[in-house]
Specification:
By secondary structure, the protein is an alpha/beta fold. It folds into two domains: 219 residues, 3-Layer(aba) Sandwich (Rossmann fold); 171 residues, Rossmann fold (3-Layer(aba) Sandwich), CATH 3.40.50.2000. The protein contains 15 helices and 13 strands. Pfam families: Glyco_trans_1_4.
Length: 419
């Protein structure tokens, strides 16, 4: 799922960038969406008047973001390449990934610090080395820094998120977290999981970095006319469509859903969009003749334009996932396009969907539970009730504008603190 389409901003360059000093963004990995976070944070800094220096590994020199920064030739938006130590030459603690990444971030910071004035360091993905902080301390000396965590889960059961019990692991990580937020120089820790600041608010640790929520950004897409979208997709204008979207594996709950649909009367049409793995392909080949109405299967890469049409054209979105305890971009898109969901009660999906305002939640993936949930949605259709998303829901914050505003506030506060 693509996030945003624009690259480096084109505002008038900030004068005397070197004299002002740089906000240094360190991210060794430009794969997946990591480079997008670098781009968005850089934009937030420049829009707030802070020059930026991005530091990454040499292997990213030919990446589109790196090429664009270099070709812009702006003093206030620079990029530096610092290579990491080979795993083969790692010794002692550096054989542990947390320590190895800590060493890279220290090397990157030291390399830049020798040549430029550094006002602040931003770490878009601190989970690389966060658990090493209690033992190794800050990799940035006395320089203030802020960070984003995306993988902190130890607290989930304490705040009502349904996840598997891991009491020993969670206890250890809780203790490491409490110590890590007291690391020298760490001003703000932002989490894409809103339950982490909630947990921190309950335990009220003394002093330490502030812990806040930054909503994972998604594109501000506008819905297409449903009939126009259905015509482009070749769908029945009068049909009822249940969308299963994304990379389709068994963890999407697709097998349980198909079996439930096969036993239903007046079932919605299954609209399966996204590349399937081999197991799902084999399963669906056996189930296609059984399902009535016949499913619509788009086993392919989905473009941004087709994604917009799919969410515009469908009537309900499936989120009955198995063993998935994190957040889902499909949930954000369903909210954006004002579509009801049928969702798992597990993990952050279940936490966001609690209360039923976004649609029915499943306590299990039995055929009876799925049939009942889809029946609730169908009953609304029969009554002529249009689904209306709650405008004050936390999902309303999952925009690029809100993400950048949260970062600007954190950066401005951190730059203003005394070292």
């Amino acid at each position: 799922m693509e996030r945003a389409t624009h690259l480096v901003p084109i505002e008038t360059p900030i004068a005397d960038a070197a004299r002002l000093g740089y906000v240094v963004i360190i991210e060794p990995n430009f794969t997946g969406h990591r480079w997008r976070y670098v781009e968005w944070i850089a934009q937030a800094c420049i829009e707030a008047g802070y020059p930026v220096l991005v530091v990454t590994e040499n292997s990213n020199e030919d990446h589109r973001l790196a090429r664009e920064i270099m070709s812009a030739r702006r003093e206030d938006l620079q990029i530096a390449f610092v290579d990491t130590e080979s795993k083969r030459h790692s010794r002692g603690l550096k054989r542990i990934s947390y320590a190895r990444f800590h060493a890279y971030f220290k090397l990157a910071y030291d390399s830049v610090k020798r040549a430029e004035r550094v006002r602040l360091v931003v770490v878009p993905y601190v989970d690389y080395f966060f658990h090493a902080l209690p033992l190794l301390g800050s990799p940035f000396g006395k320089t203030p820094w802020i960070a984003i965590t995306m993988r902190t889960t130890f607290h989930h059961r304490k705040v009502g998120v349904r996840t598997p019990g891991r009491p020993i692991v969670n206890t250890v990580k809780s203790l490491l977290f409490r110590r890590a937020v007291h690391t020298k120089g760490l001003r703000t820790l932002l989490s894409i999981d809103p339950t982490l600041p909630e947990w921190v608010g309950r335990v009220k640790p003394k002093h330490g970095a502030s812990v806040g929520y930054v909503a994972d950004p998604f594109p501000d897409a506008k819905a297409e006319d449903p009939l126009v979208a259905r015509e482009r997709l070749g769908l029945d204008p009068a049909g009822r469509y249940l969308l299963v979207y994304g990379s389709i594996s068994e963890r999407k709950g697709i097998c349980e859903l198909a079996e439930a649909l096969a036993g239903m009367k007046d079932a919605p049409t299954l609209l399966l969009a996204g590349e399937q793995d081999q197991e799902v392909r084999g399963f669906m080949r056996a189930f296609i003749p059984i399902l009535k109405p016949a499913p619509v299967i788009l086993d392919q890469f989905v473009s941004n334009e087709m994604e917009r049409d799919l969410f515009s054209a469908c009537d309900v979105v499936w989120l009955g996932y198995k063993g998935h305890y994190g957040m889902s971009g499909v949930l954000v898109q369903a909210y954006r396009f004002d579509k009801p969901v049928v969702a798992t009660s597990d993990g952050l999906i279940g936490w966001f969907c609690r209360g039923g305002q976004l649609g029915p939640c499943l306590d299990d993936l039995s055929a009876a539970s799925i049939t009942q949930a889809l029946g609730e949605v169908a009953a609304q259709w029969e009554r002529g009730e249009k689904h209306q998303r709650p405008l004050d829901h936390l999902l309303a914050r999952n925009t690029l504008g809100q993400f950048k505003e949260t970062l600007r506030q954190a950066i401005t506060a951190a730059v203003g603190t005394r070292v």
